[in-house]
Amino acid sequence: MAEKNDFTGLKLSEEVTNRLKEEFPTLIALATTPPDEVVRRCEINRRSAETAVLKARKLIGMSEPITAAELLQQRLIKPHLTTSSQQLDEILGGGIHVGALTEFSGSFSTGKTQLAFQLCINVQLSVEEGGLDGTALFIDTENTFSPARVAEMAYPFTKDPSLFLKKIFVSRAYNTDHQIQIVSKADKLIEKNEVRLIIVDSMASHFRAEFPGKDNLPRRQQTLMSHAEDLQRLSEAFELAVVTTNQILGNPDSLFTGESNLSPALGFAWGHRPTHRILLRKSRGTARIARIFDSPELAEREAVFHITSQGIRDGPPLDY
Ligand SMILES: Nc1ncnc2c1ncn2[C@@H]1O[C@H](COP(=O)(O)OP(=O)(O)OP(=O)(O)O)[C@@H](O)[C@H]1O
Ligand SMILES: [Mg+2]
User: Fold this and answer.
1) Is the pTM of the predicted complex or chain greater than 0.85?
2) Which residues neighbour 222 within 8 Å (Cβ) at sequence distance 6 or greater?
3) Domain co-membership, 45 together with 155
4) Distances in Å between the alpha carbon of 254 and those of 249, 259, 262, 263, 307?
């Protein structure tokens, strides 16, 4: 297989090769991008873009199917990202998966953002410690990223939390267009900084605000789908974990009686995009319950975790 960023194997003109290299840090990033997008980003003609994408796919062995046995082998060696709760990791099949989209939905204060912060710390740990030895990109659509709270969660690992804060790239997204742009331009940042986790907290807020009502639904779905595809592409091309949060629609009271009236926002079309969907609800005090409710390989199980001052944990804080 070709070296991941050896573009000379494409055997294209120097000018075209240079433009491709400027936009795409690796062959796999190029190979997984639709040709139209390559035309737009590199300002080359459609034929060159098609050739480049086809050749890149061939060079990295993407053109032929692989057997399910090989696929299993590839999956087995992929590390998982710990949530800091053994119970939650267990129902997730070892932790958050790389190469996939994982969605946490829940009403306010169910721990979506706290979990996201914890993952930004954990991704920096070694694989032996449950991390991915990488950095995080946090796309903040609600202006709720709190460096002080993240620092508090880093203290169990270090005397100097700034070491962890320096490896979390925070992009405040002001609207859907901005949110989409951050993701579609992320290739270089990811490659340069070894980003292994992308958080979108929350996926829903700008989309729901900017495309209200039934009339806007088709346009919203289309925009959302292409955004989801971009995220999926990054997760596979760079072997990283994507975690999105989502709001809940329905009667919040039913959180305490069952979830029959509740469903994550953004509708059915979006619902098919995350690989694993987890619903969070409040329990007593610091306890939260996570339930897997849609996954191609994980059973519908529940786990209890706690939000403590140190971060996500299996048990309640000692002074509780
Ligand atoms: N420093 C802290 N120590 C302990 N618990 C904390 C701390 N900071 C926040 N929490 C707890 O975390 C909970 C809020 O969780 P989080 O911010 O993840 O909610 P959310 O699910 O993202 O909600 P929203 O939909 O409003 O964004 C609150 O119950 C709060 O008490
Ligand atoms: Mg939140």
Assistant:
1) yes
2) none
3) no
4) 11, 6, 7, 11, 22
Query: Which tokens in the block code for residue 22?
Result: 């400027």
pLDDT in tens, 175-201: 999 999 999 999 999 999 999 999 999
Q: Both 159 and 199 in a single domain?
A: yes
Of 16, 72, 77, nearest to 41 by C-alpha is: 16
In a domain, 188, yes or no: yes
For the CA of 202, the nearest atom of ligand 1: 27
| Atom 9 of ligand 1, nearest CA residue | 114
How many independent structural domains does the chain possess?
Answer: 2
In this predicted structure, the answer to whether residue 212 has a pLDDT above a threshold of 90 is no
Q: Who surrounds ion ligand 2 at CB < 5 A?
A: 112-113
Residue 65 falls inside a structural domain: no
- Minimal-distance CA residue to ligand 1 atom 10: 307
Contact between 220 and 204 (Cβ < 8 Å) = no
**Ligand that comes closest to the CA of residue 307:** 1
Kindly state if the Cβ of 111 falls inside 6 Å of ligand 1.
yes
What does the DSSP assignment read for 11-57? ---HHHHHHHHHH-SSHHHHHTS-HHHHHHHHT--HHHHHHHHHHHH
Q: For ligand 1, is residue 149 a contact (CB within 6 Å)?
A: yes
